[in-house]
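Severity: low
Component: inverse-folding endpoint
Summary: output formatting inconsistent between runs
Steps to reproduce: submit the following C-alpha cells with default settings.
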C-alpha cells in the first residue's frame, strides 16, 4: 500500500464557491466580532444572537450557487484514483467536499447541519432553525440545543483519527488555510517531525504564516492550482 495522503483544507478552498474566508480583507471576522458569535461565553450571553448567526450561515450554504468547485472535485478524484489512503481533514463546516464526492472527510471544526444538546450531549442532524426555546428530542430540555460547531477555546473533533492519519502520511497538503489557528496550523510540523521522508506542500492564494515549514509552495486560486497538482500526483507521484 503506498503512503497515505492527508489534505488539510481551510476556508480558501470554498472561496470560489461563494463562501467567505475569515481573515482576508473581506473575511467574516472583519465584519462580525467572533467573540460575539463563536465562543461559549457568547452563547451564555445571548443565545438568540449566536443561533441566528448559525441559522443564517446554514441557509446561505443551501443557496443554489453554493456548489463544489474544481478544487473540491479534484480532491474527490484524488481519493478515487490514488492507490493508497486519501483523507481530507477540513476546518470548514460546509458540505462541499462531500458534495464533490470525497468520502473520507474529517470535519475538525464541526459540520453544518449537526446540533448538540448541552444538557445530555446528544448529537443529531437537523436542518431546522434553532431558537433559545428549541427542545431536545432526547432529554426534552428546553434551550440547550446549539450547533455542533467547534467554537474558539473548544476541543476540535476527530483528534484521534487525525493523529492516526498524520502518522501514516507520506504527502501532506495544506490548501486555503492561513495557518493562524491551532491545532490545524501545527500539523505540518507534526508530520515533518514524525515522518521525516514525508513531502509537505502549501497551496494557497498567498504565503500562509507558517509557509517556511513547507517543502513546496504553489500560490494562486485553488481552482487553478489544485486540479493540475492532483493530476501531477496521480501521473508522477510527488517526488521529482
Ligand atoms: N484559493 C486558495 N486560497 C485562498 C483563496 C482561493 N481562492 N482565497 C483565499 N485563500 C486563502 C487566503 O489567502 C488565506 O490564507 O485562504 C486562507 C483563508 O484563511 P482564513 O480566513 O484564516 O481561514 P482558515 O485558515 O480556514 O481559518 C481557520 O479559523 O475562524 C476559524 O473556525 C474558523 O475554521 C476556521 C479557522
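Observed output (run 2 of 3):
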Amino acid at each position: 500500500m503506498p503512503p497515505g495522503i492527508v489534505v488539510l483544507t481551510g476556508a480558501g478552498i470554498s472561496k470560489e464557491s461563494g463562501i467567505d474566508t475569515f481573515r482576508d480583507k473581506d473575511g467574516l471576522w472583519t465584519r462580525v466580532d467572533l467573540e460575539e458569535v463563536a465562543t461559549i461565553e457568547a452563547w451564555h450571553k445571548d443565545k438568540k444572537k449566536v443561533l441566528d448567526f448559525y441559522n443564517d450561515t446554514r441557509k446561505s450554504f443551501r443557496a443554489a450557487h453554493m456548489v463544489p468547485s474544481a478544487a473540491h472535485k479534484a480532491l474527490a478524484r484524488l481519493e478515487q484514483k490514488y492507490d493508497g489512503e486519501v483523507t481530507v481533514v477540513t476546518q470548514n463546516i460546509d458540505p462541499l467536499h462531500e458534495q464533490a464526492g470525497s468520502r473520507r472527510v474529517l470535519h475538525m471544526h464541526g459540520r453544518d447541519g449537526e446540533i448538540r444538546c448541552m444538557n445530555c450531549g446528544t448529537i443529531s442532524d437537523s436542518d431546522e432553525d434553532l431558537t433559545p426555546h428549541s427542545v431536545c428530542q432526547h432529554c426534552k430540555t428546553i434551550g440547550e440545543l446549539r450547533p455542533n460547531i467547534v467554537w474558539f477555546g473548544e476541543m476540535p473533533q476527530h483528534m484521534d483519527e487525525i493523529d492516526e492519519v498524520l502518522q501514516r502520511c507520506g504527502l501532506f497538503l495544506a490548501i486555503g488555510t492561513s495557518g493562524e489557528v491551532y491545532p490545524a496550523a501545527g500539523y505540518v510540523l507534526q508530520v515533518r517531525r514524525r515522518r521525516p521522508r514525508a513531502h509537505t506542500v502549501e497551496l494557497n492564494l498567498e504565503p500562509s504564516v507558517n509557509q517556511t515549514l513547507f517543502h513546496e509552495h504553489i500560490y494562486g486560486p485553488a481552482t487553478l492550482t489544485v486540479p493540475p497538482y492532483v493530476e501531477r500526483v496521480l501521473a508522477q507521484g510527488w517526488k521529482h
